[in-house]
Each structure stands twice: as structure tokens, then as C-alpha cells.
Amino acid sequence: MNKLIIKGHEHPAEKFLNKAVDYFIKQGYSVAIGNEIETEWYNFDLLRVEKDHPSRDVQDTFWIDDKRLLRTQTSTLQGRVTYDWKNKPPLKIVSPGRVFRNEATDMSHEAIFYQLEGFVIDYNVTMGNLISTIENFIVEIFGKIETKIYPHHYPFVEPGMDVSIKWKGKWLEVLGSGMIHPEVIKNMGYDPEKWQGFAFGMGIDRLALLDTGINDIRLLYHPDLRMIYQF
Amino acid sequence: MLLPIDWLREFVDTKGTIEDIAEVYYNLGFGVDNIDKDKMIIDLEITPNRGDALSILGLAREYAAFENLILKKKYSQLKKIDLSCGIKIKNETEDLLNYSCAVINEVDVRESPQIIKDRLHSVNIKSINNIIDITNYLMVENGHPLHVFDIDKISGEEMVIKYSKKNDLIKTLDENKYILPEKSLIARDANGIIDLVGIQGGFSSGITSSTKNILIQAINVSPKIIRKTSKIIGHSTEASYRFERGVDPLFAQDALQDALNLIQKLAGGKIIKIFPRIDNLKEYKPTIIYYDYSLLERKIGVNIEKSLQIGILRNLGFTVDNSKITVPSFRANDVKYPIDIVEEVIRIYGYSKIKKKPLPIKKYLPVKTHKKWLYRQKIVKSLLGNGFSQINTYSFLSDQMSKQFNKQELVKIINPLSSENKYLRPSLIPLMIDAAEKNTWANQVNLFEIGNIFTQKYERTNIAIISTKPIELLNNIKVINKGEKPYLTRKKYYTWEGELDKFTPFKINSDIIDIKVEKYKNISKYPPVVRDLAILIDKKYQLDEIKHNIENINYVLVAELFDVFNSDKFDYSIHSVAFRIVIDDEKKTLNAKKADEVIHQISELLKNKYKAIIR
Fold it and tell me: pTM of the predicted model, to two decimals?
């Protein structure tokens, strides 16, 4: 008797994430992986999310002690790659990873989810480059689909923008991005007069749900093999 | 922020439909949460940097700037009326940005007219009486909070604005009592605290139906001190929400004038004193930015002529004298850097007008973790290629699961989702076992997870495997016997866990079966019924097609291929194929009879179409 091996099922969100990361690797991006326990400095202060400002309230945080938390965003790698690991610009980075928000959970919200962050810092990187990068990525992942960009405020970018796609007749916000704020470049340890760049971030789980049709985000972290078997 | 269109139209002539108006706000940077076409109200998302947009006036200003229109409403100068009325206002703090107040005698406190009640209702504010309603109405309209005292209930001749001492007590208008931390902003009369400044007024001097004489104040305070107090006592109001985000430091006098006009109209009374300002206010220093007009092209990649940039900025209320740009007081909290000026220009000019330009192809140096990622992917492929399926589990461990670990070594969350999620997982195994036990209908599991684990000493990426059959490719397998403590499982499991960095990927055989998947079907709330079906079938039939046809049958969620083998016992052209049929119904768990029918249907399909022999 010779038994054949049947390939295992890949987790749908991981599969989607890999597709996205692979795309960026082909564009010359390098993958930065950071820790899930982060410090307030890298998660907030370096990124201009001040302690005594209401923008802190936008992301509900899990705290471990008064300086450490579970990272609320993978933008933490902006400071880690530059200030901590001392990589000098020019840089082209993507960073996938788990992030945590202290929010009530339901079919479309979990306290844990995957984000994919990306950032480019060079001499002449402009918003025109950012928009081109985002739109090419969307075509790659979703095919030809209507997209819209609107201004939106995030403390770590200026100008900031949101990108929406038209999905099954409805406009859905899928990505936040913008030009890295000069003060953030300074916090990284570099001269904002010399270096400029853009950054973008997206919630991978939400996109994976759109792509696959899974209706409950919680299934991604509370496995039901009925879901796993279908991938 | 709810924006009733008819209220907006008092300030600016809008163009087009409510959807057109909403689109303008999208383009300005305010997300549209909802459009109510019946009530003609738009619900806008106002980001924390735009305290100036928390009012009809602020939003009208933005609309006018975008559409190149002029605001319809003008504010008149506040006259100072200097008659003696016995009350003195003193400020002993450094956090008062502006202060303006007036005393009105013989007001008629009664119900508000219908239009005021309707407007307040449309923005979800309760109507109480004309005086209180006016303060709320004007706060929504022009963004400046107001507070009114019953002046006859203020004891003594002086109201002093000062910092609280630790444990000072106040009973606020909503009848709650708050113990204050030190250095909160309060107002005191001869008897006690009458106002939690910037947050809420005191109960003792609140307006009632028998109030005759009032003191109305427009006070502006520094955002940070309001936020601090509000967070510590756990209380916030429409007023404190606005102060935290920044209220126009030059507007108090206009706000008061507006209030006096409306009070006279709706409640009558005689204005006997106006304090346009008081002493000891924090001086307002306008923000001046020296701006290089070429910065915009450098950052955005589009050329906008200097004259056009200047036109846009002036429309937005900026004073422009060549490169010297003075930020209007209502944007002082938001616009501070030259890059903020770039943003102001480009958002009005239009993001859609920015030409896309691909990044040039250039080599960038990889970071140290790049190899880690590639290695991780190699490991995932090797596990999939050896029949293991990937899952992800929660990072939090429940109290119950954490009992088996040394509490001293666990990382604890100070503010967990619930007591069930207090600890971070020091191992992937407990939650993987939990997952396996929740899926016992699957009969067999062969799963892996890659994820981070946490102890007091380190955070690390681990890989763990759990299977109902022995894991032949690894040593040091930990067996978890049925019913064994601490897991008390219903099945026996073979497990393994180790560091991802130190894991050697398994070899992948070239002839693994990679079957095509169908479109995802959502799963039922109810447990499935599972039946295994094993057949002997000619190898010429594609397994993808067979699976596809089985899954087309009603109630079949998925046909999981789990066993394929050749044997000397049957012809070379034939192999044994086994499917685990997962029968799912969103309304309930199907009964045995119904499940049998489904299996029968499948068997007939296999026999007729594929000449299969059911084993």
C-alpha cells in the first residue's frame, strides 16, 4: 500500500497576507518583522500620537504596564527599522503582523487582527508616487475596481488620505496612508529637509473577508475546521 | 457630528443634492458616516485635529472655502455695559484662554419655541427650557460651549476660577457627585464649587423654572487640562469634547453676543452687565508659518501656482503676506507646520488631480528580518506539503488555561477584554488543543500554527503542531492522553512545539495531491453532521471534479479529501479515495435520516457517474 499525501489547508487570512507581501517583495520591498509587545514610545510618541491628545482615543489599547502595551498598529516598525535597528534611508519596507485593539468583538470586529504596513523613504518620494503605489496594489489584489481617495487625518502623516474601493456596489474604506510627517522623520533620526516618504497601512483580515466571502472575522482566530477545510 | 442641511443653509448657499453636499465633505477630509435623505441630515466623521469643525459654522466655513462662496452670517461686536451688579469674576489660573459673560435680570424661563426644539431634536439633544436650550443650540451652531448660572443661587460677591485641591467635591447638573483630582479647573463662590469649568456646571446654581436672574458665560480653556480631568473622573460632555479638541480662542465675545441676542428674543429680560473680558487671561499668540510655495511640488509632485495657493489659503481664512502666513484662530490647534499648509492647499485643490507616478525601479537594502520572513514561508509550505493544515488562535489565555503555568512567568494585561483574556499565551499548545476539542466532529486533526508566545523574559515566534496521529517527522513528541489533566480532552493528541527560527522545514514530496477549492460557503451556527465515504475509483477521474460535484449536492458544505492510496489488492488503474462529508444546515443540525439521504445521493452520484465502488 502506498498512501499519498494530501496538501494541507492554508489559513485564508495568511494566504491573502502572503499574496500581498509577495507583491511588495517583487516591487523591491524588504520585510520588517517586529514584536507584538511594544513600548508607548514606538507605538504612539514617535508617531506623534500624543498622550494628552484625543487622537490617543482612536485606538483602544491593551496595557501591560505604564510603558508597555500590545501594539495597536504595525506602524511601530517605522521607528524600529530606523531609530532602533539604525537602517539608513533610502528604505522600502513592508511589515505584516498582529495588532491588538481593546474593543468589543462581533462579526466584523475582533480584538486581534492582521495589519500590513508599508513605507518608503527616499530623496524625492511624492504623493504622486504614493497614489500610484496604492492603485497598482489594488489592481493586483482585486483586479480592475473603482477606487477613490479622500483626505483623512492621521497624526503620523501629512497630507493623509483614505482609499476606498467599490465592492459589490458599496464604497468600502480599505487603506489609510499619507506622506510621513516631517516630525516623524526627525524622530526616526533623519533630516526631513533631505528625506521624505510615504506610509500606508491596511487591515488584512477585513480584506481577506471581502476576498473570500467569510462572514465572521472571529473565525480567523477561533478556528472552525468547516472554514479551514474550504481553503 | 450631525449636520442638518437646513441649518447649514443658514450659513452658506449649498449646491446640489444632499449626496453632492456629502461628496464635498468627503473631499474636504470629513468621512460621511450616514446620509439621512428623509430628515436631510448628514452624519460626518470629525477627526480629533478638527475641533473647529464641531459646529454648523465650522462646517459651513469649510463648505464655503471648497465651493468658493461667502458665509452668510456675520457676528456683531460686543458692547460693554457697565452698571454695577454686585458680582466680580476673578481668574487665578493659567489655563483660561478667553472669558466673556453677562448678567441678565428678569428673564422668563419657559418652553422653547418649536423650531428650537426641532433643531435640537435633529441633533439628538433634549429640550429642557428656553435658557438651557439656547446654550446647547448655540454650542452646536457656532462651536463655543456656554454656561448659565442662576445668579441668585451664587453666594457672595465673587466668583473665583481656580485649581481644585485633591478630593474637592462637586455635584454637577446631571446630579452626579465627583471627587476631583488636584489641579482641575473649578469656579468657587463664597460657599463652595459652583462649576467644573469646561466640563459641566454645578447642580446648586443650575437654571430651574423659577430662575429670574442669570449669569451667562462664554469661557475658553486649554485642551489638556480638560482632557486630564475628564479622563480621571470618567466624565465627559459635549462641552468638554469640544474643549479637548480646541475651541476658537478668539470667539468667546462673539458667542456671548449671539447668546444675548437670542435670550432677549426668547426670554426677554434686562441686560444689566456685560464683561467682555476679565483680567489674567492667557495671551493669544497667533501662529505664523513661513512657507515656501515650492514645498508643495516637492512633497506632492504637482505644480500649483503661487497665486492659486494663496487664493485657496485666503478662502480658508488664512492671512497671507507673501511667505508669511498667519493661521486663523479657529485652526490654531491643527495647523502648525509648513507641511500643514501644503495639506490645506492640496485638499481644496483636489487629491484626484494629483498625477500618479510609479516609483522608479531601484535597489534597496534588505532589513535583517527579511530572511526570517522568507524562511517562515518556506516552513509553512513544507508543513502544508506534508498534510498539515494551518490555524491561528487567540493571543490571550483564559484564567482556567493559565492555571497550569507559573503565574510569575506569565505576562498579564492590566485592562483585558474580560477576565477570560487576562494573560498572554506562553505556549501555542493550550489554545490549539482547545481548537481541536471544539472540532471533534472532524474525527482527525492535523494542524499547525505559527505565532508569538510571551513570558516575562521574552517574546518569541514559535511553531506548534497538533495531530490525532503520531507525528513521524519530529522527535520529542508530547502526548496528551484522553482525559489527562490539565486539558481533560476527549481525544488523544500528539503535540510538538519549538522555536520557529530553529525549525528545519520538512522535505516535500513531488507527488502530493493539491485539490482545487470551491467558492466559500458560510458555516452554520449549529454543529455539522459528518460521514466518511470511502470508494474505489478509476484514477482517470479527476479528484477536483468529483469533489466539485459532491459539494454541489444540497446540504453538503465541503467534501474533505482525507485518504488516497494505491494497493496491491486492487488494479493499478484504481485507487482508494476517502472523503469526509461535512453536512451543514444554517437552520439546525440535520437529523440522521436527512444525513443518510444526503449520503445516499452522493453514493448514487459516485456509482452512476464515476463507476465507483463504495467501500
Answer: 0.93
